[in-house]
Amino acid sequence: MHGDMPGVQYVCLPDAQAVGVCAADWVARTLQDSPQAVLVFPTGNTPLPMYEALRHRPELDWSGTRLFHLDEYVPPRDARRPLPYETYAEYMRRELWDVIDGQKHYFIQDVDEPTAYEARIAGLGGADLVILGIGVNGHIAFNEPGAKPDSPARRVALAPATILSNFKALNKPGYPTHAVTLGLKSILSARHILLLATGQAKQQVVRQALLECTPPDADLPASWLKTHPHVTVLTDFEV
Ligand code: PGA
Fold it and tell me: 29: phi > 0 → left, psi -120 to 50 → alpha, else beta; which?
C-alpha cells in the first residue's frame, strides 16, 4: 500500500477476488460506523467479486441503510416487455439487493427526471460511500470524457464503444441508446469514494487519471477524483 496523492490511497491486491473481499470489508466498516449509511453501488464486471463477498456476510445489518446505484439505461420508447437486456435495477437485485434489507432506491423510477434521483441522495445528507468502477476511457458511472466536476445527474447518449462493449452489437432492436447517470457533483460530494479497478486493461487509465501529477482534466473524468479528500483505489495490479 502506498499513497502518492493527497486524498488518494492505493491498495494493490493479488487478484480481483481479493479486491472484492477488500471492497466488501470497506462496506462492512461503513455499516458498522454508520448504521443508516447512504451507499451508492456500481454495476459492471469489476464489482461482481465484491457482491459475492457481501452475499457471504449474513452478519451485516443493512436494515437502516439507504441504497442507491450509479446509473441506469433508458429503455427505448418502443421496447417490448420484458426488456431484452438486463437493467441495472435487475443487476442490483440479482447481485445484492434481493438478499439484504435496507431502503432501496432504483434509478429506473427517476429515468425521466434524473436530477430527482440525485436530489434524494442530497436530501439524505449526501452519500457516505460511493463505489465506482472505471472505464478504459476514464469514465466513472456514465460520466464520459467531457464531464465537468459540477455536472448534475443527467441523460446521456451511450458512446458506440459502450454499446458494443455492453450489448456486443450496435443498433439492436429494443436495446437502449441512452442512459441516466449520477453526475460528478454528487459523486464528488461523497464522504468516501472507493474505486475498484482490476485487469491489466485498466492499469494505464488508473495511472493517467490518478497518479500523474497533472491537473484534473475533463477528458479523463476519473481525474477529478484527485480533488477529493478521501479516495481509496483498490487494484489487482501495481500502480
Ligand atoms: P467494468 O465496467 O467493471 O465492466 O469493466 C467499469 C465501467 O465501465 O465503469
Answer: alpha
